[in-house]
Each structure stands twice: as C-alpha cells, then as structure tokens.
Design brief:
This protein is α/β, with parallel strands linked by helices. 32% of the residues lie in helices and 20% in strands. It has eight helices and ten strands. It has a six-stranded parallel sheet with strand order 7-4-3-8-9-10, with helices on both faces. It has a two-stranded antiparallel sheet with strand order 1-2. Strands 5-6 form a two-stranded antiparallel ribbon. Helix 3 runs parallel beside helix 8. The protein is globular. The protein starts with a strand and ends in a 7-residue tail after the last helix. The relative contact order is 0.21. The site of dicarbonimidic diamide (C5J) has 8 residues, from helix 6.
Length: 230
C-alpha cells in the first residue's frame, strides 16, 4: 500500500515498491569555484545549502536498499556530443572544453566533472553521464529504471530550473510519478527556483509534486522499516 506523504498540490503516494532517488549534477563544475557555473558568472556558494539534505536522503535510500541514480552533465573529450550552439552560448571568456582550474570545463572524467566528495557514490551505485540538461536525453537512465521496475522518482539536485526541471518534465512525459524535494534542490537564482516549484505543482500537479526532506525521511522509515544489513 502506498503511504501518502505531505506534498503539494496534494499528498504524494510513496509506493511500497518501485521507488528511486535521482540526484542531479551535484558535481564540482556547478558547486565549486573554477567550474562551469562559476565561468558563467554565478555565485556557486548558493548551491551548497542543500548538501546536508541530499546527503540525508542518499543515506536513507542506502539504508533501505533503494536505488540511487546520480547524474553528471559532461561531454566526451572530443566534444562530439556537444552541439556548437551549447558551446558558444553564454559568450563567456571560458567555454566548454577549455582548460580551467579543475581541468577541462564540463568534460567527462576531468576533476571538475566529479561528484562533490560529500555525495560521492559508493561502488556499484549508478552514475549517468548526460550531454544535455535532461537526464533522459541520450542516456541509459530509462533502461535502468525499466529494468528495476521503477515507477516513482524522488528528484533532487541542481539547478532547479535547468537540469532538475528538464529531467522532471522528461520523466513526467514517460509516466513516472515525480516528487521534487524543495529543500534538496537549489538554483543560482532564488526567483527561478520558486517559479519552477510553482510551475511543477500548478494545475493539480501538471508535472508532479513538491515536498520537503523531513516528511519524506519519516515516511521512508515507516514504509521501509526493515533496514538492509550489510
Ligand atoms: C546547468 C544544470 N545549469 N545542472 N546545468 O547548466 O542545471
């Protein structure tokens, strides 16, 4: 039986099976100085506030043996998967593929492309490299979800109005029931975050639900109360 948990626009049905945590792009490129986010002129320190909540959810999903998928936005070293339009956009002094303080900007495998140490995945946890903003475009995320019978997604990460929102819309169109965690997603632009939250839950949840970390953690403890012992 699903457990209804507090959410907007109405309670989210936390399922007994088929739940996964999606952590979007908690990579150094967006969160640390010297990366892509910084190169675009953003105050990257704003994104750090959600790290404890994302970590708490990551630990809870691990405790209950539930799947976790982390994404990283990045391109192949030859940039063959980076459209020129994406590279040229922004008109900044440093572009995707250029050398930066943390290696080549937004290139897979470079130090800056790594997930921040606080949220480092454990061996065996899936990382989805993605060339676009959405986590379904040109990735094998959907194949992983189907193979594991996932129907419900808890969505966290950065940035709310770009990769998080794009991913949630892609997931919604594919039939996934998505809950976006307000205090586990962040933006360089507070007004854009707020607008995204409102757009997602408008019209009785046209894209899905929004909710908070603490009620979800409590519901997870009730729903999955037989911790997996390592
Ligand atoms: C951006 C992202 N903002 N992860 N990427 O370019 O939101």
């Amino acid at each position: 039986m699903p457990t209804p948990i507090p959410a907007q626009p109405y309670p989210y049905p936390l399922p007994a099976t088929g739940l996964a945590l999606i952590i979007i792009d908690m990579q150094r490129d967006f969160i640390e100085p010297g990366g892509f986010g910084d190169a675009l002129g953003n105050d990257v320190s704003l994104l750090r506030s959600i790290i404890p909540n994302v970590k708490a959810l990551q630990e809870a999903f691990r405790r209950y043996g539930l799947p976790i998928f982390q994404t990283v936005e990045g391109h192949l070293p030859d940039l063959s998967d980076c459209p020129p339009s994406k590279r040229d956009r922004g008109h900044g002094p440093i572009k995707i593929g250029d050398p930066g303080p943390m290696g080549r900007i937004l290139v897979l495998g470079e130090p800056g492309n790594g997930i921040i140490p606080e949220l480092a995945p454990l061996p065996g946890e899936v990382i989805i490299p993605k060339p676009g903003k959405g986590a379904f475009y040109a990735t094998d995320l959907e194949a992983h979800l189907k193979a594991q019978g996932i129907t419900h997604l808890i969505i966290t990460g950065v940035t709310t109005e770009v990769c998080v929102q794009t991913t949630m819309r892609e997931a919604n169109d594919r039939g996934y029931e998505c809950l976006l965690i307000e205090d586990a997603t962040e933006s360089y632009f507070p007004a854009f975050k707020q607008a995204t939250l409102e757009m997602v839950r408008a019209q009785n949840g046209i894209v899905g639900w929004t909710g908070f970390t603490e009620p979800l953690l409590s519901a997870l403890a009730l729903q999955y109360d037989a911790p997996v012992v390592a």
